[in-house]
Known about the structure:
- By secondary structure, the protein is an alpha/beta fold.
- 25% of the residues lie in helices and 25% in strands.
- The chain has 8 helices and 12 strands.
- Strands 4, 5, 6, 7, 8, 9, 10, 11 and 12 form a 9-stranded mixed β-sheet that branches. Strands 1-2-3 form a 3-stranded antiparallel β-sheet.
- Helix 1 (59-66) runs parallel beside helix 2.
- The longest helix has 13 residues, at 106-118.
Amino acid sequence: MSAETRAPAGEAPPGDVFPGEAPAGWPAALGSADAWTDDAVLNGRLRLLQPRRGHRFGHDAVLLAAATPGRAGEQAVDLGAGVGAAGLLLAARVPGLRASLVEIEPALAAAARENARRNGLGDRVDAVALDVEAASDVFAAAGLSPGGVDRVLTNPPFNDHRRLSASPDPERRRAHVAAADLAARWIAVAARLLRPGGTLTLIHPADRLGDLLAQLDRGFGAIAVLPIHGKPGRPAIRVLVRAEKGGRAPLALWPGLVLTDAAGLPSAEAEAVLRGGATLPLAAS
């Protein structure tokens, strides 16, 4: 079973589990091989390791990469990259583009690095175990200086404090409320990294679009929004948003992408992106 079968926009089901002993050259940082699966993406054009349990990439990562612009010679950064799915898909699509995969969990960063190597992208893609909210000098030490990046893409773990049960413990309550401005903090990091005219591309829950647009209003413009619908005639479940640092063009709302048809089967448009590697209109720049 591959990462692209049966999963709606979200996490993927388990893929091929490694039996028993680790393959030759297995990175020690990944620990036991049976804790990982080997999954096909884009109809097998890439194969990516990811944890058998826990957060797993799915359609969101493929959609994010398909909506991100890129050209040869540019530098892209995938913030909160996990095992690197979105950043690697972008690098595979755009020959000559360099990508840095930023992930706080060392094991996931090691997996992202191994995924780059095993897909022949190790010369253009690097992975670093780094907190997205680390100080600017920490990023610079990893080769990511302010204003030096052309593209940022991210699928952040946004939480809405309004939907969380209030804890009687004040420290836990403050921690939950602090999560409400996670989007603003990550957007600020993207703004710091990007050159003027560089682009930020995000995938986001559709019902939080208003909050996201308000946060992008500080320093970004030329915003383009593409809704993602799970089924025909239903409200969007995700939005893809591209914004330009310092841009001044008015907001553009693109026709939505519907993932399944009325019978519940994958739509032709979705299949072209999720299996065929087609890009979305936001990738044009």
